[in-house]
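One thing: can you check what follows?
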Amino acid sequence: MSASGPAAVARSTLIVLAIVGCAWLLVELNRFFLLIFAAIVLGAVFDAIAQRICHWTGIARP
């Protein structure tokens, strides 16, 4: 098995592309999960605010 030549270059290129692809996927998934987390937190905050307002004004929540 030769340590140089076109096969070694192709193998090294494939490894680098795989590492870059995994890193890119991790960044994209991280953004997605942070967006989902922020939506859940904002929903909980606004639910608590609406609950307080309805309690103070006597409006029944559906």
Q: What stands out?
A: The chain has a mean pLDDT of 90. The chain has one helix and no strands. The helical segments are 6-57. Residues 42 and 48 are 10 Å apart (CA to CA).
